[in-house]
Automatic annotation (TrEMBL):
Pfam families: DAO. It comes from the Bacteria. Coiled coil: none annotated. InterPro entries: FAD-dep_OxRdtase, FAD/NAD-bd_sf. Residues 28-356 form the FAD dependent oxidoreductase domain. This is FAD-binding oxidoreductase.
Length: 402
């Protein structure tokens, strides 16, 4: 077995942490930031039998995270309209991993793999060939093959009866998925408890006073900006509405030159309508303009949304690096940073977290002691483009490359 296979085997075969972390004992790993990525990483490490502590500035529900606001669509092919091949490949692999993760969690999570429907109003029909061209350029062949079907109006009626008679053309991307983001966060919190992770909710960590641990894994999303200065936030706004009687069976994307929109149906007639994409780290409440755009676009997809009840208008910022790629950054010593999941956190987190966990275990076990060993590790890593080192002796610093 290679080093990667050995550590992969450890990641894939959960072992209950022998005794969890006893108070006062130095854990193997301190994970800072308990949004999506931090919870997954901590849960995986504990599953590999390691002693883990997790520190989150917000509550156990995850309300301070981008992950709390997200629509949690797992749509690597639809995202190929704006994302590059690395992201769509990570997304395709992660989509296969989610059911396995959910099966191991102690609480149920709504997960669906019922595809994405893409539609457009007649006046915006010039968007459709652009969308198709981008997908064909950015998506891996295995996603495109059997993954993209042009639909006539009658076929849309058959696939999504709720939209019968409303659109004359569309695309069906039958393999795509989605899940309930808040259920994932809750189930992961329960999974952390089950695996003996020492959780510190409502505990903000300052870089000058890091908690004691052999290895620190920084998963603070935008909160890592002091140490990753090129990180930026891209604001997203969403509406959560209750709309009984519409009955969409899958996420619907509306192509539009200015207001592209998605409507993601969750359980119990709940719909997440999103999302704006605005440069800037503005966490203020949703603007009137954005609310009007989102809600009127949803109304234009189905007039039933006119009678929906607005449960929430919410905003958050997507943690984004200059190249819009995720990154696993090693400081050359005992700290690893996992960040830059941008608008694809749910779509790619399983693969990114697994890659980070494999590296963290190798670091803890002394297999990566210097920059040469790091270079060797990166060479044989499955997702080698994710790895960076931010060390004075290396030119490959994320800061320098930005
Ligand atoms: C509007 C919107 C819609 C989205 N829709 C989708 C979608 O449909 N599909 C998809 O795949 N992705 C989507 N995303 C993206 C996804 O939410 C993010 O990529 C993902 O949440 C990033 O995960 P993370 O763990 O890196 O960051 P976060 O989820 O933000 O978690 C970071 C955590 O670190 C904590 N933290 C910060 N500073 C500190 C500190 N000093 N001490 C302790 N804790 C700290 C924060 O409180 C937070 O809980 C969407 C995002 C937004 C905003």
């Amino acid at each position: 077995m290679t080093a990667r296979e050995q550590s992969a085997a450890r990641v894939g075969a959960p072992v209950r942490a022998q005794a969890g972390v006893q108070r006062g004992e130095v854990p193997d790993f301190a994970v800072i930031g308990g949004g999506l990525c931090g919870r997954l990483v901590a849960w995986r490490l504990a599953g590999a039998g390691r002693r883990v502590a997790l520190y989150e500035r917000g509550d156990a529900a995850g309300t301070q995270s981008a992950a709390w606001v997200a629509a949690a669509m797992l749509a690597p092919l639809a995202e190929a309209a704006s994302a590059e091949l690395l992201i769509t490949r990570l997304g395709a692999a992660s989509l296969d991993s989610w059911p396995r993760i959910i099966a191991e969690l102690p609480e149920p999570v709504f997960f669906q793999r019922n595809g994405t429907l893409v539609v457009w109003h007649h006046g915006d029909r010039s968007e459709a060939p652009l969308f198709e061209r981008r997908l064909r350029a950015n998506a891996p062949a295995e996603l495109l093959e059997g993954g993209l079907f042009s639909l006539s109006g009658a076929q849309i009626n058959a696939a999504e009866p709720a939209l019968a008679g409303r659109f004359t053309q569309g695309w069906l991307l039958p393999h795509e998925g989605q899940l309930d983001n808040r259920q994932v966060l809750a189930a992961l919190a329960a999974g952390l408890a089950e695996r003996g992770v020492e959780t510190h909710w409502n505990t903000a960590i300052d870089d000058r006073e890091l908690p004691a641990a052999r290895i620190t894994i920084d998963c603070r999303g935008l909160g890592a900006k002091p140490v990753l200065p090129t990180l930026r936030g891209i604001r997203g706004e969403v509406a959560r509405v209750h709309a009984p009687g519409i009955g969409l069976a899958r996420p619907v994307r509306l192509l539009h030159p200015r207001y592209p929109l998605y409507i993601a149906p969750k359980q119990n007639d709940l719909y997440v309508i999103g999302a704006t994409e605005v440069e800037g780290e503005d966490m203020s409440p949703v603007s009137v303009r954005s609310a009007l755009e989102l809600l009127s676009a949803a109304f234009s997809v189905h007039p039933g949304f006119g009678e929906a009840r607005i449960l929430e208008l919410n905003s958050q910022c997507r943690p984004t690096l200059p190249d819009h790629r995720p990154a696993i950054v090693w400081d050359g010593a005992q700290t690893l940073r996992v960040n830059g999941l941008y608008r694809h956190g749910y779509m790619i987190a399983p693969e990114v977290a697994d890659e980070a966990v494999r590296f963290a275990l190798a670091l803890a076990d002394g297999a990566i002691a210097d920059l040469d060993a790091f270079a060797g590790w990166r060479l044989q890593a499955h997702w080698n483009e994710l790895f960076h080192v931010d060390h004075p002796k290396s030119r490959d610093a994320v800061r320098e490359s930005a």
